[in-house]
Write a structure and sequence with these properties.
heterodimer; A: alpha+beta; three-stranded mixed sheet; B: alpha+beta; two-stranded antiparallel ribbon; 8 strands
Chain lengths: 175, 134
Amino acid sequence: MSTGYALAIHGGAGTLPHARMTDAAAAEYHAALAAVLAAGEAVLQEGGSALDAVTAAVCALEDAPLFNSGRGAVFTADGAQEMDAAVMEGTSRRAGAVAGVFGPRNPVRLARAVMERTDHVMLIGQGALALGRSAGLPFEEPEYFFTQPRWDALQETLELRARGGEDDDPARRHG
Amino acid sequence: TVGAVARDRDGRLAAATSTGGMTAKAPGRVGDTPVIGAGTFADDGSCAVSATGYGEVFLRWSAAHEISARMRLAGASLEEAARHVVEVDLGAYPDSGGVIAVDAAGNIAMPFNCEGMYRGHVRTGAAAQTAIYR
């Protein structure tokens, strides 16, 4: 068995169209992605597990408001934020997932708590949040998750819909 | 949506994905991210996958698991399996998104069928690389 490691990350495919991406914004995204890679690679360099590496990398992505998860999550049509996350390890196919949660700083850690602390694969809503509290995971107030660009994107989308427009621009999905 | 896949020094694979969903989505809508086999999947014998994009499409195609199945059952390489799912299966839905994937040998594939995907990768002894567009 090779002793090498490998790590890949993504920050979403809802990218700005090339023509609208400024050099400054691109540099910001590249720097953020590099920082995320460094967070995950640090785990692997020390001989840590793939599971710990992907958890560390996704936590770093969730902490960065540039990306649509955790702190940079988009808003629903009702102006709320609902987050989903999942984790899976390939040796025993253990898996954990959460859906429709708001409050945990890092939803991926809540998904991992489902995997490691319950007999289940997915928990949603209040049941998932209760698990997070019992596991001692950090929670944040709504202000932590609010970002003006995501709020503005919601308003633009709602206005578009009010005019009968079809919002099929991939760059606006942030997904 | 964000995600990560890794292969550690012991050959173990893992995947993780996290998302806020889609702007102005219907309250209660859940996409592929937390659905094991659609947006997140890992199996040491084949690959680990994390997806991003139009979640309903990834759900209908069981996209992440489909990549693993193509490797296990059809003998496809990681690159072949990931490209087929993203470009042929999901390709019927333009701009539906992409995946990142790693196999047991540490190979990495990152196909997408839209204009860009924020992404990056690093391997033992190699410099980290990041990219946005093709």
